[in-house]
């Protein structure tokens, strides 16, 4: 038997704002509503100006608006109210000879129209309740559309920031992981990539655009794509970061924006032993996991975008046969660590990696984030991106990556 979806309980209006300057009509509307719902509060304003300047819209569930008020012409009063609060539920009151104006009011944003002299208490209260329900449904639909648009935007940014590494044909495998920070539902500005160069060198990058939001995420995607294009075009390794900085400076929407980056260029030897050329631009160093977790001792240059002529000196890291190299963004280590009052930092990460030495590489990125969340006592504030490279792949495996987690 298919379960029946639970419908939300109908909204019962508790406060109606009547905008009417005729005391006789005010008395009549009050009496009609009181006959049906004695507990309904009815406030009165004599003009649209009193409504928009007095902050009355935020205190009522529905507005009953006379379209024949002095000082307003036709639908202008309705338009003024909807400009002041486009979520207001408004029912308009018209005379016997201008029903066409009521129809035009609905087209302009009113929920319904009522003709004076043709309504009783039941019709009036039903119109008010329906107006509130329809406005609530419209608001829910709008929020759903906004969520769908945000999800679609997040998916587009994810494709730009978190691609499938191009490592087919190399003896290197990449596993990636991403989790957004708790303050945002959209993907942030962390990015990574790995590609096989023309000479057989495996190039990888991980980076983090400072700040949070769609502009920063779009900039991160642009930097990632630009880096891939530079590497695949055969630009000399030492020139990649300077050229990437040129892209950042020319494309950033805020001159104060900078980006931290870690790049590695891995040369795989015939025996399986390898070496990695590491450059750091204000970014945490990669960690070699074997024979024991060790952070790469590389000089840390300034982040991209700080100085026009930045320099990023390389360091060569030896990788034993069966090596594994972990690249990550600082969101992984900036939350609380096991020592009270202290972040996890790089030293704490090395300790965690030592404790997780028997964890399978497939599960290791997610496990590290799980441990970090546990230390933090809840979701991490910043985004976390992890790229785990290892020499345990056949050429057909090299292009496979772990699914991104949000």
Automatic annotation (TrEMBL):
Phosphoprotein as UniProt keyword: yes
PROSITE patterns found in the cross-reference section: RESPONSE_REGULATORY (PS50110)
CDD domains with a match to the protein in the record: REC_NarL-like (cd17535)
Residue positions where 4-aspartylphosphate is found in the record: 66
Record Gene3D superfamilies: 3.40.50.2300, PPM-type phosphatase domain
Keywords: Hydrolase, Phosphoprotein
Superkingdom field: Bacteria
Domain Response regulatory: residue ranges: 15-131
Coiled-coil spans in chain: none
Protein name as it appears in the record: SpoIIE family protein phosphatase
Organism: Pseudonocardia humida
